Amino acid sequence: MKTEIETIAGETPGVAYQLTVHRLTGSDAGAPRTYIQAGLHADERPGVAALHYLIPMLEQAEAEGRLLGSITLVPHANPIGAAQHLFGDHMGRFSMGTRVNFNRDFPVPGKDGVRALDTATAPVFAERRLKSRLLELADDCPIVLDLHCDDESVQYLYVPEPLWPEMADLAACLDAEAALLWDSGSDCAFEEAVFEQMTARARESGGNLSGHCVTTVELRGQNDVDAGLARKDAEGLYRFLQGRGVVAADDSATPDLRADFVARQIRHVEMVEAPAGGTILFHVAPGERVQAGQMVAEIIVDPGCSGGAVAVTAPQAGYVLTRRIRRFVRMGDNLLKIIGDNQAVASRTGALED
Ligand SMILES: [Zn+2]
């Protein structure tokens, strides 16, 4: 494995960021190339922990001649967000300089199939140069995994609809609980920018998207970071890479999806908002089924007073995917994501959240 420390120049004198890039070289030029990054939302750590265990496994495969496809790994994809603290709290989701979500506004190809990427010396903000560099590093890889997590959550994947069900192998290897299939953009998240580029290339070459995989993997919730889960995720990713022929395997058969796996189009997601501000008492947890009208949470507005708590009910029957990690909420904040049995909206363009 070769490691390079790249420098992303900051916007002011004396400031620079480091991007660590690991490269492993496969022995078979015909095997799929893979790109994996973690920590793009810098406050989401399960992916970083998983790579802590996956990287030595891949290094060993490379040393023993079992690595077929080349792999690029960026375990800390967002050194800018990693450095943002405000009064002791870490702020890793939005750039404090521009207010832009670190996983939005990636450059996507235009109608002509060409992307406007910023070079390392372009006179633009560091996060723009970082985004372009991450896309360059993922370029030409048919397998691209962006490791994230949600607030409190089961493990689930965002998947471009044309790649489903082929990508069910990844969900099965990870033992994931759900997949959200999107078909009309995600506010230019990294995944969308990569997928659009893959699609443009396939169109250009007259090929198809078979064998491609690009996803935002939500490795459960922000606090689901421990050695057991990280090892399990690393082993799942390794198994997936074996199944795709990136790493040689005696048995490349992939496991089955969980019997209760939920795969739905993203327009099934009910974003349940807080009807009042206050203290949340949840009555359901991620992974549970709910019925229409079932109380899923109470918000305590006036503690101890008659009528001092506001009940929140499920708008339809479905599956609780995520819930808010903090228990103090503003009116209008998202409380839960529920995958409805029926479509929640006629169509959904853009990301579920800011
Ligand atoms: Zn994220």
UniProtKB/TrEMBL annotation:
Coiled coil: none annotated. SUPFAM superfamilies: Zn-dependent exopeptidases. It holds the Pfam family AstE_AspA_cat. Residues 32-242 form the Succinylglutamate desuccinylase/Aspartoacylase catalytic domain. Its cofactor is Zn(2+). The keyword Transport does not apply. The keyword GTP-binding does not apply. Keywords: Hydrolase, Metal-binding, Zinc. This is Succinylglutamate desuccinylase/aspartoacylase family protein.
